[in-house]
Amino acid sequence: MKTEELRYLQRLAELYPTIGKASTEIINLQSILNLPKGTEHFLSDIHGEYEAFSHVLRNGSGAVRKKIDDVFGHTLSNSDKRSLATLVYYPKEKIAYVKKKESDMQNWYKITLYRLIEVCKTTASKYTRSKVRKALPSDYAYVIEELITEKAEVLDKEAYYDSIVDTIIDIGRAENFIIALAELIQRLVVDHLHVLGDIYDRGPGPHFIMDRLMDYHSLDIQWGNHDVVWMGAAVGQAACMATVIRNSIRYGNLDILEDGYGINMMPLAAFAMEVYGDDPCQVFEVHGNPSNYNALEKELSRKMHKAISIIQFKLEGVLAKEHPDFHMENRCVLEGIDPEKGTVQLPDGSVHNLLDTHFPTIDWEHPYELTDREKEVVERLSSAFRNCEKLQNHMQLLLDKGGLYKTYNGNLLFHGSIPLNEDGTLKEVEIYGETCKGKALYDKLEAYVRKAFFTVDEKEKKASQDILWYIWAGPNSPLYGKDKMTTFERYFIADKETHKEKKNAYYHLWEKEEVVNRMLEEFGLDPEEGHIINGHVPVHQLEGENPVKCDGKVIVIDGGFCEAYRNVTGIAGYTLVYSSYGLSLTAHEPFTSAEDAVETERDIVSNRVAVRYNPRRALVGDTDNGKALKERIQELKQLLDAYRKGVIKEKK
User: Fold this and answer.
1) Which of 228, 253, 384, 540 is deepest in the core (most CB within 10 A)?
2) pLDDT of residue 305
3) Is the pLDDT reported for residue 569 higher than 50?
4) What is the DSSP letter of 136?
């Protein structure tokens, strides 16, 4: 036996010090391999829509309702099934609603408890007792375990369970117990959650979404470009910070910064009133739905919007010139402005009239230089972002659970795209003098993201933080995937031709099987079995676009959680469920409110389409975790052999 192998087995023997313990673990692991594969739930492009996100999380994109159908079949009416599903989603609200209408609550409690117990039994059956035990709420763990575990030694099972349920009702704990069971079902129906990026921007509640994810039992996150720009803001990268503030103002969501994260916007507000006090700033109207804004607040928002936008354009111009390898020189737009004619010459040579010609903070000899007051605003805001504990905790979650891509159970997950040439080959991208493509490009950029937070070398930190801005909007960024971000043009130029952003070749080559196979192989996956799952680009269902590409090998699940996209998508988001039976895509209707969902018992799952059925039910042994368990079993068998041959001594 090699020295390294013996050393490893000696370390393993510290965990399993006897033949008996090693043997028991082998039996346990072998039994887990034969359980059904846990259900994976995929969401993308949530964009701050917390209410809709919360509902989809509660219903598991239809997984809860399917479990209820499996348990009760035709023994319950569709109406009763809908009512039970709504109870699982919103137990507290549903109980309060039922109380107003139900005359015999004791009977309702009893019927409901029995139904929830049956759903719990079926839901828990695909997990080991140990895993279920860890998921049980502490207050009721023992009682729930008794109710969902078959007890062969009890002769009169009906009387035994009746006595437990009757006692729960008699002592006034029925409501709490129903809530505990409903939340347990939600917890067990989905084994693992994948969030494929863009948690932030546009919607009003990304901080609530992050709070919810902080407590989620099992998840991974693939960063979106909107997440990365917030990560840049959190480390004090000025252009990223200005972008985050501008987006928040543009969509009427300053509350996210001020109330959600406690970041004081007074420095910007005071500066905006001082510099743009007499400027109507009509081009900078807020686009969201700030219905609670009065006229003065709307006016202040426009002025703040313009102030931070000009600061952003200056900061971006400096970055583009500092980093010619970013190939973002088309963002150096301020130097093309002719203040006397009121026109701008874009980098492509075209000249256009400006919709707004008032630029009191721009020195036309040095158009990208911040004024002293602008520098002061940037410094104060940067300090607030860097020292916001809640924001830093949320960014830490993105770092701990996230990355630019993930391979999981044979599927490749990422937010945006893989940069490709027009012929379908992987595009070579230069990052600080080093050329890389495909997986290597993703790995290189992810390393820079992490260095932006953790490196102590000041030069390396500056370079890494600047890369965050590149990932947000760079032409070869795998998270952006377009030739330019035409923010300036959308504000200042009426001609919509200048607003166009050309997509990377990935987005018209994803129907070509040989191209898709090559991308899967690049990331070490089997092209015959694997899938690419990504978001970022809304699927225009109204125009007949299909989210399933290349005969099911590519699945796009950005269908428009964000309300701003629904006029082009026609729906309120796609989600994906990967259960032991196969992959199914779910389209959602717009979510109204929890109150409406409870009262009407209306779900937002509008359509489910099978992307792939498994020829046989997938087991844990078929998964990545199963492969790891098989390796551990082999290692434990080697340990057993070492014990029996006397190479390693038992420690009883």
Assistant:
1) 228
2) 97
3) no
4) S
- DSSP at 24: H
Q: Spell out the residues 6+ positions from residue 88 whose beta carbon is closer than 8 angstroms to its own.
A: 58, 59, 64, 68, 116, 119, 182, 185, 186
Q: Residue-wise over 31-63: b if at least 16 C-beta within 10 A, else e?
A: ebbebbbbbbbbbbbbbbbbbbbbbbbbbbbbb
Ranges 155-159, 171-175, 177-181, 410-414: which has the least confidence: 155-159
Model confidence at 280, pLDDT cuts 50, 70, 90, reads: very high
For residue 569, what are its two tokens?
């998508």
Q: What pLDDT score does 604 carry?
A: 65
**Quick one: angle between helices 238-250 and 295-322, nearest 10?**
150
With a cut of 80, say whether residue 609 has pLDDT above it.
no
Q: What is the mean pLDDT of residues 329-334?
A: 94
CA angle 395, 399, 401 (to 5 degrees): 110
Q: Alpha-carbon distance 432 to 463, whole Å?
A: 9
CB atoms within 10 A of CB 240: 29
CA distances from residue 622 to 125, 518, 618, 629 in whole angstroms, order as listed: 18, 23, 6, 11
Query: What DSSP letter does each residue of 268-283 carry, written as one string?
Result: HHHHHHHHHTT---GG
Q: CB-based contacts of 202: which residues, under 8 Å, 6+ apart?
A: 47, 48, 247, 251, 253, 288, 562, 564
The angle, 0 to 180 degrees and rounded to 10, between the axes of the packed helices 372-386 and 295-322 is 90
H/E segment holding residue 528: none
Dihedral (C-alpha) 483, 487, 492, 495: value to the nearest 10 degrees? Answer: 40
Distances (CA, A) of 431 to 42, 435, 449, 463, 503: 31, 6, 13, 10, 20
User: CB of 595 within 8 A of CB of 589?
Assistant: no
Q: Which residue has the tokens 């259900």?
A: 39
**Three-class SS of residue 575?**
strand
As beta bridge partners, residue 414 has 405
Vertex 349, ends 346 and 350: CA angle to 5°?
70
Is 315 within 8 Å of 233 (Cβ atoms)?
no
Mean pLDDT over each residue of the chain, to the nearest integer: 91
Per-residue pLDDT, 564: 59
Q: What is the Cβ-side half-sphere exposure of residue 98, based on CA atoms within 13 angstroms? A: 19
Using the structure block, give the residue that is written with the tokens 């007074």.
Answer: 266
Q: Which of 533, 501, 535 is nearest to 516 (CA)?
A: 533
Q: How many helices (H) and strands (E) does the chain have?
A: 27, 17
The tally of CA atoms less than 13 A away on the side-chain side of residue 489 is 20
CB atoms within 10 A of CB 645: 9
- As given in the structure block, the two tokens for residue 135 are 């998921």
User: Is the pLDDT score of 31 beyond 60?
Assistant: yes
Query: Scanning the structure block, which residue is given the tokens 């009893």?
Result: 110
> In this prediction, what percent of the chain has a pLDDT beyond 90?
77
Dihedral, CA of residue 462, residue 463, residue 464 and residue 470, to nearest 10: 120
Pair 354, 342: CB distance under 8 Å: yes
How far is it, in rounded angstroms, from Cα 464 to Cα 448?
5
